[in-house]
Specification:
The structure holds 2 protein chains of 2 kinds.
Chain A (H helix, E strand, L loop, with lengths): L1 E9 L6 H12 L11 E8 L5 H15 L5 E7 L1
Antiparallel strand pairs in A: 1-2, 1-3
Chain B lengths: L3 E6 L6 H11 L2 E6 L10 E4 L19 H11 L5 E4 L1 H8 L6 E3 L7 E9 L15 E8 L3 E3 L2 H9 L3 E5 L11 E5 L5 E4 L18 H12 L11
Parallel strand pairs in B: 1-2, 1-3, 3-4, 4-11
Antiparallel strand pairs in B: 5-8, 6-7, 6-9, 9-10, 10-11
Helix pairs in contact in B: 1-5
The chains are: A alpha+beta, B alpha/beta.
GO molecular function, one term (chain A): phosphoribosylformylglycinamidine synthase activity
Pfam family, one (chain A): PurS
Family (chain A): Belongs to the PurS family.
């Protein structure tokens, strides 16, 4: 078993009100020096056997079709 | 012949019954469609209702997009033949299906908004708005948590240049939607997505007005004009 991690983040130009709310809370809680927070999603995809190029390409297709909406989100993947 | 308008029920749909009721009040026959059955039953048009399909898991509309009924609906809608109105969650499903540009994200306030809003109808050249007049103001209810319409600047410019903004909030968009956009249409004008709910504004007893009925009577006028309706006639 191997794990492919897919991180999905809103594109930089898309407003992230959740991240802004978190940044606001940081200030109120005394965590100083936080200038911005952006919130995203992390998917842990367990795949059978070793991750070869074909399997990675499969997960990439899955990420761009389902896990992320490419209209508003970017994603990156890595093998762990 | 009475027009037959399908209303799709997904797991988590809330407004399918109100949508069917609006269809009936407008003078058409509502036809219940089921997300898991890829049969459009030969309907003349389809309404994707509001609600929280699949619990809004992953993203609103992201799972519903891949349901069996959408496999039949998407090509018929994309071809320009099948009129489709997506309301609220239905609008989100249409964006996730790439039948409409842009996406709907969390309200700027992070709060669920449930109140009447005034919209300005900006395009009457669609299957669902031809009975309104350009610039007409209508008052219907907005009730959504992820109603903030976003798209990149080039897409927004293109939508405005080609008259594909169907309606705007007549006030600063309460949910933060770019350029106050409340609804858009595709290049053929057969697919319309709208965040507020016209189906809740068809009767004096329960709605803020009856202004929403025009979406459904517009469809009947559109169908009566002899525009071919080509829903997968498998039934």
């Amino acid at each position: 078993m191997a794990r492919v991690v897919v991180d999905v983040m809103l594109k930089p130009e898309i407003l992230d009100p959740q991240g802004q709310a978190i940044a606001g809370a940081c200030g109120r809680l005394g965590f100083t020096g936080v200038s911005e927070v952006r919130q995203g999603k992390r998917f842990e995809v367990e795949v059978d056997g070793e991750v070869d190029d074909a399997k990675l390409a499969d997960v990439r297709r899955m990420a761009e079709t389902l896990l992320a909406n490419p209209v508003i989100e970017d994603f990156s993947l890595r093998v762990e | 012949m009475t027009a037959r308008v399908g209303v799709v029920t997904f797991p988590g749909s809330l407004d399918d019954r109100d949508a069917a009721r609006a269809v009936r009040i407008a003078g058409a026959e509502p036809v219940a469609l089921w997300h898991d059955d890829p049969d459009l039953k030969g309907v003349d048009a389809v309404v994707l209702p509001g609600g929280f399909s699949y619990g809004d898991y992953l993203r609103c509309g992201a799972i519903a997009r891949f349901s069996p009924i959408m496999g039949e609906l998407v090509p018929a809608a994309r071809s320009g033949n099948l009129p489709v109105l997506g309301i609220c969650n239905g609008f989100q499903i249409l964006c996730e299906s790439h039948l409409l540009p842009g996406a709907l994200t969390r309200n700027k306030s992070l709060r669920f908004i449930n109140r009447d809003v005034t919209l300005r109808v900006e395009s009457t050249a669609t299957a669902w708005t031809n009975r309104y007049t350009d610039g007409e103001e209508i008052r219907i209810v907005l009730k959504s948590g992820e109603g903030c319409y976003v798209a990149d600047t080039a897409t927004l410019d293109e939508l405005e240049r080609t008259g594909r903004v169907v309606a705007r909030y007549a006030e600063p968009a309460p949910n933060g939607s770019r350029r106050e956009i409340a609804g858009v249409t595709n290049e053929h004008g057969n697919v319309v997505g709208l965040m507020p709910h016209p189906e809740h504004a068809v009767e004096d007893l329960t709605g803020p007005s009856t202004d929403g009925l025009g979406f459904f009577t517009s469809l009947l006028a559109h169908l009566a004009d002899g525009v071919p309706a080509a829903a997968g006639a498998t039934g």
